[in-house]
Amino acid sequence: MLTATMFKPVRTGKVSNLIIEQIKSALHAGALKPGDRLPSERELAESFQASRISIREALKRLEASGLVTVRVGSGVFVAQADSKSMSESLFSILRIQNGTIDDLTQARLIFEPSVARLAAEKVTPEDIIALEENTRQAEMAIESELSAYERNIEFHSLIAHATHNLTITLTMKTMLDVMKDMSSDIARENPPQSVNKFAYQAVRVHKEIVRALKEKDSERVYSLMQKDILRIQKGLKKLKPVTE
């Protein structure tokens, strides 16, 4: 467990803000790493020379921003890199401002082909194995008349991961999590044969993308991903919309 000695007393301004700034600075400097447990509330209060009320307020705000997680009975831990809070925020904003699934698909059309092209340059044998396993499981699900929905969305996350760029991976995961939330009801409200046909088409293109990635053919990967997103956009318009 980390000690509280890395922190300095806070004396002026809004105390909880100053506590947050110091903890964020420790995160940015690498003194605090994902999974590290923060000192106890009492130790933090002593180190910052602040009240426990101020410590609790700072920790609550850090938790709300996704930087720390509170585990009852265990303590406060630095959060792992995760897109959950980002996707929840984006989903809420889109719902409040009447954003549509077509808005999201248009954003994907701009973003994903370029991500796929970079993946073709950075992809590793391990990435290829993960992508092939994904398409295999999706194909098996379709053959068993089960949903391949999760696997087909996961494929796009794996492509982003193959760029080995954390910013791209988290951004893509955020968009896909929101896409999953916005489209899951559509999938449930349409006949299984329509959804399965849509899923089969996805797997077919995904297998072509994997072959192009193996060959490190970045322009073909770009073209195939563009084709896949356009197919998604067209297919979603054909499916029955969800009635509120």
List its salient traits.
single chain, 244 residues, mainly alpha, Arc Repressor Mutant, subunit A, Four Helix Bundle (Hemerythrin (Met), subunit A), two-stranded antiparallel sheet
Please, could you describe this protein's structure?
With 244 residues, the protein is mainly alpha-helical. It has two domains: 75 residues, Arc Repressor Mutant, subunit A, CATH 1.10.10.10; 155 residues, GntR ligand-binding domain-like (Four Helix Bundle (Hemerythrin (Met), subunit A), Up-down Bundle), CATH 1.20.120. It is 70% helix and 3% strand. It has ten helices and two strands; from the N terminus they run αααββααααααα. Helix 2 crosses helix 3 and helix 5 packs across helix 7.
Can I get a quick summary?
This protein is mostly helical and 244 residues long. The protein has helices at 15-29, 41-48, 52-64, 84-96, 101-122, 125-143, 149-161, 166-188, 192-214, 218-238; strands at residues 68-71, 75-78. The protein has 2 domains: 4-78, Winged helix-like DNA-binding domain superfamily/Winged helix DNA-binding domain (Arc Repressor Mutant, subunit A), CATH 1.10.10.10; 84-238, Up-down Bundle (Four Helix Bundle (Hemerythrin (Met), subunit A)).
